Amino acid sequence: MKRILLTGGSGFVGSRFLNRWHGQGYEVLAPGHKELDITDADAVLRYMQTHRPDVVLHTAAISNTGYCESHPEESYVVNTLSTIQMAQSAKNVGAGFVFFSSDQIYNGNTETGLLNENTSVSPVNHYGRHKLEAEQRVLDFMPEAVMLRATWMYDIPRPGMPAHPNFFTNIRKAISEANTISFAIHEHRGITHIDEVVEQLPLTFSLPGGVYNYGAENLHNTFDTAYSFVEQWKSNKVASASVIADMERFAQQPRNISISIAKIREASNGRIDFTETLEGLIQSCVRMD
Ligand SMILES: NC(=O)c1ccc[n+]([C@@H]2O[C@H](COP(=O)([O-])OP(=O)(O)OC[C@H]3O[C@@H](n4cnc5c(N)ncnc54)[C@H](OP(=O)(O)O)[C@@H]3O)[C@@H](O)[C@H]2O)c1
Q1: Residue 26 beta carbon below 6 angstroms from any ligand 1 atom
Q2: Assigned domain for 159 exists
Q3: Which of 5, 6, 18, 33 to mutate to test the pocket of ligand 1 (most atoms within 8 A of CB)?
Q4: Which residue in 26, 75, 96, 195 has the fewest CB atoms around it within 10 Å?
Q5: For residue 211, what are the β-bridge partners?
Q6: Domain tally, the chain
Q7: Which pLDDT does position 202 carry in this prediction?
Q8: Confidence (pLDDT) at 176
Q9: Centroid of ligand 1 to alpha carbon of 11 (angstroms)
Q10: What is the residue with the minimal CA distance to atom 1 of ligand 1?
Q11: What is the pTM of this model?
Q12: Cα separation, 1 vs 176, whole angstroms
């Protein structure tokens, strides 16, 4: 059984990975924040030397982009420096390293269409810059490490699992309150069901090192995605919510962080793949009903 050291095991992604894979072909060690503070490099190395994981799956982070913007030093320590130290310790014990990066790395890009990993990037916020620096500095000394640029993720509500407000829950709330909800027309981004993310993670452990986009493709803008999804939901079930186009947000600089997953598909011989965003949302809604 492969031994995985999972950081961030109490978080949105980590908790679901632990729940899905511990004891299912993997022994997942998931020390909590109090047990292993990832900013403590000595403690991290000691932990690795004691437990000797085969792979480190690093999901611990400050994931709130607004918080990172107002606390850049803390974001840099946790999201960049600790990631580098974590990878150094993994290398020290001969473990693989898989890191949750983010599609926010593309948030300064202005071109249209699905973005691939070779696109030159210049993130406009601290979160994106800190993730990018972590990716680059880890790959400098550990080219075999795997960097996953994840999209925004959602889950249908499930008991006992932590959740952030997300695209799906925000819409569901509007539907249940027969309310209006607005989404940006000048934004393109992938939005991915967490189950697809978690289910395929073990396949990423054997990818060649490098950067991979990881999540759903989406050619629709965020308003169109939400509008089509709600219309579909309404036709399945009596629901009344109005989706309004927010024309102002990102109007000055349209935002496109929509990823292409051609690289990871090819590197995994087609074994890693994601349902396109709108189709994935509709399938989730059908499953919930
Ligand atoms: N959620 C998304 O839609 C999304 C999208 C793209 C990329 N990502 C990336 O994917 C990864 C997982 O995201 P998530 O949504 O699961 O994040 P999350 O729910 O905010 O969880 C973050 C985890 O990190 C832990 N943590 C934070 N600081 C720590 C420290 N100093 N030492 C040890 N543990 C620490 C937290 O533990 P405590 O709560 O106990 O502090 C928590 O378990 C992150 O790298 C995030 O940037 C997420």
Answers
A1: no
A2: no
A3: 33
A4: 195
A5: 147
A6: 1
A7: 98
A8: 79
A9: 5
A10: 153
A11: 0.97
A12: 44
